[in-house]
Design brief:
Layout (H helix, E strand, L loop, with lengths): L1 E4 L10 H14 L3 E4 L9 H8 L4 E8 L5 E8 L5 E4 H5 L15 H13 L4 E5 L9 H7 L8 E5 L11 H5 L7 H12 L15 H11 L3 E4 H8 L2 H6 L3 E9 L8 H12 L2 E9 L7 E4 L7 H18 L1
Parallel strand pairs: 1-2, 1-9, 5-6, 6-7, 7-8, 9-10, 10-11
Antiparallel strand pairs: 3-4, 4-5
Length: about 325
């Protein structure tokens, strides 16, 4: 029996490639034949997933401004066709913030990383949006980039489909995850609403990604696309799923947003269309969608890898008997 280990990241704990290694090891111990096929949607580890699926790429590295102003080292990926992949989490990720400060965190470092990548390439720049510490509507990014990248082919891989404003917007839906209290959420919403340059793009699916950076990139002429759909296409997920008896996917927290553009939700959808058994796991389960086989990892972040091995071992044994 063939099983696909196709997890997304467990934020700040395991990147997709690391989670897939642990899960596949358990599946093999349980008796299944396992293939590691990690997935992503624009969040942490997306560039690594694309690199694993595309041969001939090379990594570059630059020092940029972190989310709270401190210098950080951030990587970017240059592909053979002259395009580049820049991941927001590499420069302004939540894991890079020494404290939660949604009012003070800036997207400046992502703009700096984009300029470095642009100077090294001539093709499209794919900006992967997700898992950032920021809710600044891309203000820091726009200040750095200015008009330099206007006319350059840009794509934004968004990890959610949320708009910029409102109940499902950048501040209200995701501000609390970045440390925003109700009063701070209201202030962030007012700031985003006051950014005139973002207003024409506020309702685009993905405008609210990465604290509103989706809207900022749209203002620069970027095409906003579903990061999950783009990555699953890059890794050939649908064709691989058709050959499998079992697919295991998941992320750190399963909640409403899992099915609003995140990679595990897209994996579940594709498997349902193809008639393939799919198991969804979460470090925490805030949603238990009907009709989905779902598991909650029993331990905390420090044992996430061990929990994935154990889950794989259990599912590998079940697969073996089917």
């Amino acid at each position: 029996m063939l099983a696909l280990a196709s997890p997304a990241s467990l934020k700040s704990v395991l990147k997709p490639v690391e989670a897939a290694l642990a899960l596949a090891a358990g599946l093999r111990e349980g008796g299944a034949e396992a293939v590691e096929l990690p997935v992503a949607d624009g969040g942490e580890g997306t560039a690594e997933v694309i690199a694993a699926a595309r041969s001939g790429g090379r990594w570059g590295e630059a020092e940029v401004t972190g989310p709270l102003g401190e210098p950080v080292r951030a990587r970017y990926l240059v592909l053979e066709d002259g395009s580049a992949v820049v991941e927001a989490a590499e420069a302004i990720g939540l894991r890079l913030a020494s404290r939660l400060d949604p009012l003070g965190a800036s997207s400046r470092g992502l703009g700096e990383l984009m300029l470095v990548a642009a100077a090294q390439t001539t093709g499209t720049i794919l900006v992967c949006l997700g898992d950032t510490a920021t809710v600044d509507g891309g203000a820091g990014l726009l200040e750095v980039v200015g008009d330099i990248l206007r006319g350059r082919a840009l794509r934004a891989a968004c990890d959610v489909r949320n708009p910029l404003l409102g109940e499902r917007g950048a501040a209200r839906a995701f501000g609390p995850q970045k440390g925003a209290t109700p009063g701070v959420v209201d202030e962030l919403e007012r700031r985003l609403a006051a950014m005139d340059e973002l207003r024409p793009y506020a309702d685009l699916p993905g405008a609210g990604a990465a604290g509103g950076i989706g809207a900022a990139l749209a203002a620069l002429g970027a095409e906003l696309v579903s990061g999950a759909e783009l990555v699953l296409e890059q890794v050939g997920f649908r064709d691989a799923a058709r050959t499998a008896d079992l697919v295991v996917t998941g992320e750190g927290v399963v909640d409403r947003s899992t099915f609003e553009g995140k990679a595990p939700g897209e994996v579940v959808r594709v498997c349902a269309e193809e008639g393939v058994r799919c198991v969804l796991f979460g470090g925490r389960l805030r949603e238990r969608p009907a009709g989905v086989e779902i598991y909650e990892l029993p331990s905390g972040p420090e044992r996430a890898a061990a929990d994935l091995v154990e889950l794989g071992r259990k599912l590998g044994g079940l697969t073996k008997t089917r």
